[in-house]
Amino acid sequence: MRANSLRNISILAAALLGLGFGLVFFYAPLDADQGFIQKIFYLHVPLAIVALVGFIVGGIHAIRHLRTGDPVHDARSYVAIHMSVIFGVAVLATGAIWARASWGVWWEWREPTLVSFLIVFLLYATYYPLRYAIPDRERQARYASVFAITAGAFVPLNFIAVRLAESFIHPRTFATANGGLPPKMQLVFWVCIIAMALLWYTLVRFELTAKRTRGQLSRLRRTLDGSNPPPPGAGARIAPGAAAR
Amino acid sequence: MPALPLDDAGPYVAAAYLVFVVLLIVYVGIMAARLGNLSREIESLAELAERRERERAGAPAVGEAGGGEGNVPEQASGEDSP
Amino acid sequence: MSRPTPGLFAVARAILAKDLRVELRTLESVPAMVLFSTTIYIVFRFGLDRTRLEGNLAAGVLLVTILFAALLAINRLFVAEREQGGFEAIRLAPVDGTALFIAKAAALMIYLAALEMVSVPVFGLFFLDGWGGIPALIPVLLLLNAGFAVSGSLISSMATNSRARDLLAPLILMPLLVPLMIAAASVADPLLALGGPTFEDYGQWLVILALYDLVFLLIGYAVFDFLLED
After folding, report:
1. Is some CB atom of chain C closer than 8 A to the CB atom of A56?
2. How many domains does the structure of chain A reveal?
3. Measured by CB atoms within 10 angstroms of the end CB, which terminus of chain C is less buried, N or C?
4. Are A88 and A31 contacting, i.e. CB atoms less than 8 angstroms apart?
């Protein structure tokens, strides 16, 4: 059952992504302002939005972890943040390419969204050293959850501050998502966002499944190696047979 | 106004989408490698379990007078040591 | 069994009083911060090859120096608790662990205020032509201190209980402090302008600073207890 649903969402994600990209190049009209370069918008912005929402999702799972103490939520929090960091790399790379194509420079300090995103990315990059610095599993999970909540609350604050700092300097060329987009472009944009979100979710599910499997295998090995009865699930990071999701 | 004429823009757009696809492929590759590791781990564990089963099956026979049983030489000698 | 909230501030006051007494007796943090900030000014003087600063450069040098000095204090904030069992004591006592958070944040604010009382005049002496912008800077610095205090207190308690202690706190704090620095620099820039202070968007930036302080105070208040659990 679980394996089937994983395969199904993978297929759906791949299909939507293919559809989205097809629409980008064969359906969406050419931007009068930026021309062909604007096509990057359909890749870069959905990636960014999904990554940022992913960070918030990580924070929400962290809240649930602190409230219930169930390590499942910690695993989901970790994987959500991890996946968003990876998406973040893609955001920065595509953003730099877009900046280069638009303005001739690989980085533009006066583009507030990109700068804000870089700051958020650097913050979440510290998530890993934090986790690795705390050997005790439960404490590590708790501190990571506190971090995820703090960082999640920080994201909007950061964007506001950076936006205010730049607002009077530079006209915003990376037009806000729906502001002033003709309907055809809006459609393509929304398809791409949904496709990216589904991709993110699919990859997160893969990661969680892999994590769970690894955990079960190591418990199995310990059981077989030690010739002991299997320990109660208390020490497990991810409880076996916990929610199939 | 685009900073680059249309013809020059193509490679940049392609590069952006390529970066995305490459990242995706790299990720899938890493997952595939991990899957390979997991399979190998399962195989070795299955082997271990099989050996355990054989020991347990052969044990009652070994526990008696001992010696000469066909099963005994199959056991790795170190395995039962505490 | 647990006392009503008024107990929280009483406990916080007690911890704060203890910390200040220790600081006055050992003079561990504040003199080091002052000395450090003075040295950084000298480094900036030569690094930028300038003897006079104004506008955004002046704001940058001042604020970055205060930031680095604050990091010194932040790293040391929970050392005593870790080494002498202060965390366990708070955990076992029938009081809200948040009292520790408030006490440490308050201590940090006091240290930073003490630092700035010396360091800002020194900065003016070294780099400024006119001190007209300084009075208007005071509310900005107070709000900045509060921001360092609440976020520093929160992150420091996490970092102290980890393996990479001194490394982790600055690493995690830096991105978190960016909005604070942006706001402070944006308002300080026109205040330190060459011709005299101008109050561009003064109110707006103070609101942003206050908002930042409030958000982190609320977050710290909500989650600090979880950091104290064993």
Report:
1. no
2. 1
3. N
4. no
Q: A240 in a domain, yes or no?
A: no
Mutation to test the C interface, candidates A60, A145, A154, most C Cβ within 10 Å: A154
DSSP state of B4: S
8-state DSSP, B65: T
pLDDT tens digits for B35-60?
Answer: 888 888 888 888 888 888 888 888 76
pLDDT digits (tens, 9 = 90+) for A84-124: 999 999 999 999 998 888 888 889 887 888 888 999 999 99
pLDDT digits (tens, 9 = 90+) for A158-210: 888 787 776 644 445 444 444 567 888 889 999 999 999 999 999 999 999 99
Interface of A with B in 29-48 (CB under 8 A): 33-37, 39-40, 43-44, 47
Given CB atoms, is A60 within the 8 Å cutoff of chain C? no
Give the global pTM: 0.83
Beta strands (DSSP E) in A85-179 are none
d(CA A240, CA A72): 10
- Would you say residue A243 lies in a domain? no
Domain that holds residue A83: 2-235
* 3-state class (DSSP) for residue A35: strand
Residue carrying structure tokens 């959850």: A145
Tell me the three state secondary structure of residue A177.
coil
Please state whether at least 3 CB pairs lie below 8 Å between chains A and B: yes
Nearest CB to C168: which of A119, A130, A142?
A130
